[in-house]
Amino acid sequence: MKTIIFYRSSYRGNTLKIAESMADALSAELVSIDSNPSIDLSDYDLIGFGSAINFAAHDIRLQRFVSSQNLKGKNVFVFSTRCRPFLGAYHKPLRKIVEAKGGIIVGEFSCRGFDRTGPWVLMDGYNKARPNERDMFKA
Question: What's the structural domain count of the chain?
Fold first, then answer.
């Protein structure tokens, strides 16, 4: 099965760790959307999209990237890293985009990631050891 994973990891490398773990397990090609990739997805059987959760959704750059892709009939999974202990509905906006582009959601994954923004600066960060080995294994 030919697999490609697109990701955006801009803050602490949390999402990159998860993306690398998934790519190793799936023997997938790993591509940062920051490199402005233009890849023909017709040859891929499985496509992954992931980023950190920012303001209750995936990174806006990732959402725009996914919106520009032809996903008709493609098997797609989404993943994320987040500060909050519970996932909530954070994947919903990206899932809607994938489905609107004709993609078929076959899986999702999310785990906590280290965060040192906002109020967490006062405590020198939150989820300090995340993602950890267990998170990467589960991914």
Answer: 1
- Please give the pLDDT value at position 36: 85
CATH, residue 106: 3.40.50.360
pTM here is: 0.84
What totals of helices (H) and strands (E) does the chain contain, helices first?
4, 6
- Residue ranges of alpha helices (H) inside the chain are 14-26, 60-67, 92-100, 133-138
Label the pairing between strands 46-54 and 75-82: parallel
Instruction: Single out the residue of 130, 120, 122, 53 nearest to residue 91, CA to CA.
Output: 53
Please say whether the beta carbons of 131 and 17 come within 8 A.
yes
* Helix (H), strand (E) at residue 63: helix 60-67
Q: Do 82 and 116 contact (CB within 8 A), yes or no?
A: no
Half-sphere exposure of 94 (CA within 13 A, CB side): 30
**CB–CB of 77/106 below 8 Å?**
yes
Range of the domain at 131: 3-138
Percent of the chain with pLDDT over 70: 74
